[in-house]
Design brief:
alpha/beta; nine-stranded mixed β-sheet; membrane; S49_SppA_C
Length: 318
């Protein structure tokens, strides 16, 4: 019986040791995952040394506070010697395009900025491009669509047919108009929206004329909403050169005196979790490693109000 009791005690000791080593192994694995996650998330991104920053503008363009901060950081970073804006976007909100335009112009006051067009750089995407010092487009890139739109629906007639009446009490006839429930349409509502669209369109045309060195009349002829290939845009002087990122780098080195063979480093806005603690950032980085984008849980993107976009319904809105 004494032997059996000693054996039981020894087994318990071995079990406790096994649990301790399992815990240590688990902690080491978590530490390794965190380190790898931080590395993948930009902990060693190469932003410390001299480099050319690449900013990618893709999908729907929206107002974005993190993006505004990134552009300010680019302007103030001594390590960033030049910026390449890689655009592949059908456009988006006019405010989103304006934010990008203003932010890139502030960068261009301190360092050279080049824009490259991918498949699409239309509407607010083109608004982004004209902020650069030089625009490069592929021969078959689609650009242009200079203009503004405001869309709204009206279900008032349908609601009348099914016997639903929406009562509205407001301070003035044009308050909250156009409304989807007002039928027939409130007099003056469409004219009010047209004035809004016309004013923003005039600003868009003006900055195209200013940035491209064109007469306003020439811009107006091109700014009828038409889209153009890269080759057509070159003929219209809406872009400067046919080429991609290699051509942009060659221009930066040959014309702007940027040191040869500088590394091109991707810059992107900090995700919503970036301002949280180390543990949260580490978890987000680990999530990226396994293919989970935790930033999607805090998306504030909205396509509302005035937009400058080409065929959003056929575009990738992710």
């Amino acid at each position: 019986m004494t032997l059996d009791a000693d054996a039981i005690v020894e087994r318990r000791r071995l079990r406790r040791r096994l649990y301790v080593w399992r815990g240590i192994t688990l902690l080491l694995a978590i530490g390794l995952a965190v380190a790898l996650g931080l590395f993948a998330g930009g902990g060693m991104s190469g932003k410390g040394g001299p480099h050319i920053a690449r900013v990618t503008v893709s999908g729907m363009i929206l107002a974005d506070a993190a993006q505004r901060k990134m552009l300010k950081d680019l302007a103030s970073s001594d390590a960033v010697k030049a910026v390449i804006v890689s655009i592949d976007s059908p456009g988006g909100t006019t405010v989103g395009g304006e934010e990008l335009y203003d932010g890139l112009r502030r960068i261009a006051e301190k360092k050279p900025v080049a824009a490259t067009m991918g498949t699409l750089a239309t509407s607010a995407g083109y608004m982004t491009a004209i902020a650069a010092d030089r625009i490069f487009a592929e021969r078959t890139s689609i650009t242009g669509s200079i203009g503004v739109l405001f869309q709204y629906g009206n279900v008032g007639a349908l609601m009348q047919k099914i016997g639903v009446d929406v009562k509205t009490i407001k301070s003035a006839p044009l308050k909250a108009e156009p409304s989807p429930f007002t039928y027939p349409e409130q007099p003056g509502a469409a004219a009010m929206i047209q004035r809004l669209v016309d004013d923003t369109y005039a600003w868009f045309v003006d900055i195209v004329a200013e940035r491209r060195g064109l007469q306003r009349a020439d811009v107006l002829r091109a700014a009828d909403g038409s889209i153009y290939s890269g080759r057509q845009a070159l003929d219209l002087k809406l872009v400067d050169e046919i080429g991609g990122e290699d051509a942009a780098i060659a221009w930066l080195e040959g014309t702007k005196g940027i040191e040869k063979d500088l590394k091109v480093v991707d810059w992107s806005p900090e995700q919503p979790y970036a301002g949280l603690g180390l543990a949260d950032r580490a978890m987000a980085a680990v999530g990226r490693l396994i293919g989970i984008d935790l930033s999607a849980w805090n998306s504030e993107g909205r396509l509302d109000g005035l937009v400058s976009v080409w065929h959003p319904q056929s575009s990738n809105l992710q």
